[in-house]
Each structure stands twice: as structure tokens, then as C-alpha cells.
């Protein structure tokens, strides 16, 4: 099957982006098979989209969707790939530690029924996304934190594991030479993984998993496990998820905002732009941090936007009978 690649402008009408903001326009590089329409404007299910250049994770989620399984199963399986990747220093195993050298993980997952589960400040467990799912499905609560979350994970059969790899320990030792605290923008094109999927039944789910900011204060929790901030799904409307400096996402409840904007009629792209515009409008120091959003609506249309260039999005979307999925990045020029 012949493949072709073309560049198209994302729908950047400037809606909601404050004048003078440095948020940049997007170009989409789309690779499609010849007989499959490029369907950013149409309904083509299933679809999975993730923050950053996480091919393996997104491909895994796509495989699960291709097997006819639910978007929730796809999200868990996809996020687990990055959590197990010791090379990635911003999620799961190998995540950079807090100032005291402890790797602490945050994650959440949300299903088509609006149910949600999360873990915050979880230690010694490689797959917080799976623990979050268990919190959602097996407990009367939505969030478990710290030692309680770890105890629940152990009682649920998860194996304890030292998550501080040699590379991350060395990075922490180096950081301690100055102890200068500064968020890293686009850490090696890899940061918090937010993932959204719609399965062949049209049901939406999402997940978000992270080790949080490197060298954060002990006890710090970011946006990723907090419903409405790091992730929000409404199966009648769409979903959104965030990456970047969690404090800014928390203050603007970004993912909920994006879903509500889509409910009011904005496209995923327009909604992501407006959510970034809200952050830009309130900050004099946007050069010092990154925030990026991705969104999908019920029709399978997607959008993404970030404060700074360098934010990549990985997406698989194609005819469900096609075994050769298109892959697609939004990349700032
Ligand atoms: N967005 C991840 C964090 O700030 O922890």
C-alpha cells in the first residue's frame, strides 16, 4: 500500500490566545495510506493520541484497540509501556527523584462512565496507572495517596521494586552539587504521558502517568492525578490531558476547561489553544516553563497546543480494518 506524507496547517485561528502570547502555530505532518482519507475532520475510529514522541506506548494502545478491546484497556496497556521504560526519566521506572532521592509517582485513569481512579505520591510500584485503575474499580474511593496507595497496591498483588535507576541516581547526585531548582522544559522530548483513546464502539477513556517534576519538594503533587487538571473525559463530548508544569495546569483546571469548551462548540484545537491562552495571560514568566495539551472530541477529531515549540504528539488513527496505521505528529515549526 502506497504511503504519502504532506504538511497541513492546523486550525490556528488564534481563538482564545491572548495577544502578545508566545504560543506558536502548529504544522501537522500526516502520513496516510493512499486509500485512507486524512481524517482530522471526519469520523475515523478507533483513535489513540498521546503527549510526546511515545511511539511504542501509542502503538501498544493501538494494538489493543485493533483487537476490539475497550479504550480503557488500551490506555492502561499503552501507559504501562512508558512506565516500564527505564530510559524515560519522567515516568515510572527510572523517573527522576524528588530532592531527597525518592521516586514518587502520580497517575490517573478515567473511563467512559465518568469513573476515575488515581494514585498520588506512590513509591516502589512500577505501574501506577494499573493501581489507579484498581482504585477506580475495586475501592469506594477515587484517590489513594502515599503509604496507603502503596499498601493497597501490595495487597492487590503488585510487586515492590526500587524505581531509582543508576542513571537517575547519578543525575540526582549531580543536581545536589548545586541544588538549583528549575523545571526542565521538554525533558528530552519526553515528559508526563497523557493518553486519550476512542474505541470502535465510540467510547472514550484517558490516562495520565508521571514521576512529576524532577527534584520537587517531598510531598509535592502535580496535575497529573487530579481530575479536571491532568485529565478529563466526558464520553458525550471528548477528552483532554496535559503535560508540563503541573502547578500551572492545576491553577487553570485545564483539561476540564478544554472539555467544557468543546461542549460549547469549539474544536479540540481551538479548545487547547484557549486553555494555553489562559495560562499565558496570567504569567509573566512563560519562558521558564512548558505546558502542552492534547484533546479529542467524540467525532475522533484531535487537537494539541503548547506554550513553547518542541511539543510532540503521537497519534494512531485509521480505518479499523487497516493494519498499517498512520502515525502523525504535531510539531511546532
Ligand atoms: N505534569 C506533571 C507534573 O507537573 O507533575
What do you see in this structure?
By secondary structure, this protein is of the alpha+beta class. It has a single domain, classed as (Glycosyl)asparaginase (Glutamine Phosphoribosylpyrophosphate, subunit 1, domain 1). The protein is 26% helix and 24% strand. It has helices at residues 55-66, 71-83, 128-138, 146-155, 166-176, 246-252, 254-263, 268-281, and strands spanning 3-9, 27-33, 47-51, 105-110, 116-122, 143-145, 193-198, 204-210, 231-234, 238-244, 291-297, 302-306, 313-317, 327-331. Strand 11 and strand 12 (302-306) form a beta hairpin. Helix 2 (71-83) packs antiparallel against helix 3 and helix 7 (254-263) crosses helix 8. It is globular. It starts with a strand and ends with a strand. The relative contact order is 0.20. Residues 1-41 and 320-333 have low confidence and may be disordered. The structure holds glycine. Glycine (GLY) binds at residues 192, 210, 212-213, 222-224, 243-246.
Amino acid at each position: 500500500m502506497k504511503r504519502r506524507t504532506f504538511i497541513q496547517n492546523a486550525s490556528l485561528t488564534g481563538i482564545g490566545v491572548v495577544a502578545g502570547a508566545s504560543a506558536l502555530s502548529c504544522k501537522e505532518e500526516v502520513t496516510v495510506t493512499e486509500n485512507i482519507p486524512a481524517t482530522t475532520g471526519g469520523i475515523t475510529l478507533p483513535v489513540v493520541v498521546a503527549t510526546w514522541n511515545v511511539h511504542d506506548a501509542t502503538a501498544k494502545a493501538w494494538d489493543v484497540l485493533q483487537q476490539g478491546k475497550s479504550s480503557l484497556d488500551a490506555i492502561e496497556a499503552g501507559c504501562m509501556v512508558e512506565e516500564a521504560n527505564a530510559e524515560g526519566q519522567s515516568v515510572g521506572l527510572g523517573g527522576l527523584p524528588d530532592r531527597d532521592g525518592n521516586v514518587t509517582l502520580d497517575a490517573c485513569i478515567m473511563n467512559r462512565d465518568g469513573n476515575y481512579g488515581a494514585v498520588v505520591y506512590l513509591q516502589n510500584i512500577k505501574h501506577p496507572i494499573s493501581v489507579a485503575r484498581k482504585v477506580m474499580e475495586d475501592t469506594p474511593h477515587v484517590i489513594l495517596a502515599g503509604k496507603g496507595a502503596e499498601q493497597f497496591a501490595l495487597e492487590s498483588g503488585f510487586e515492590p521494586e526500587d524505581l531509582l535507576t543508576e542513571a537517575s541516581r547519578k543525575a540526582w547526585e549531580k543536581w545536589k552539587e548545586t541544588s538549583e531548582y528549575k523545571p526542565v522544559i521538554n525533558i528530552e522530548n519526553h515528559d508526563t504521558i497523557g493518553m486519550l483513546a476512542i474505541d470502535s464502539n465510540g467510547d472514550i477513556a484517558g490516562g495520565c502517568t508521571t514521576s512529576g517534576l524532577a527534584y520537587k519538594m517531598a510531598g509535592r503533587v502535580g496535575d497529573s492525578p487530579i481530575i479536571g487538571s491532568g485529565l478529563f473525559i466526558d464520553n458525550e463530548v471528548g477528552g483532554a490531558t496535559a503535560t508540563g508544569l503541573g502547578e500551572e495546569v492545576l491553577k487553570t483546571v485545564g483539561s476540564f476547561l478544554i472539555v467544557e469548551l468543546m461542549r460549547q462548540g469549539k474544536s479540540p484545537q481551538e479548545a487547547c489553544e484557549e486553555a494555553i491562552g489562559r495560562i499565558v495571560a496570567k504569567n509573566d514568566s512563560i519562558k521558564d516553563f512548558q505546558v502542552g495539551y492534547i484533546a479529542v472530541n467524540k467525532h475522533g477529531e484531535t487537537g494539541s497546543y503548547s506554550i513553547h515549540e518542541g511539543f510532540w504528539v503521537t497519534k494512531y488513527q485509521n480505518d479499523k480494518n487497516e493494519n498499517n496505521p498512520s502515525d502523525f505528529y504535531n510539531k511546532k515549526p
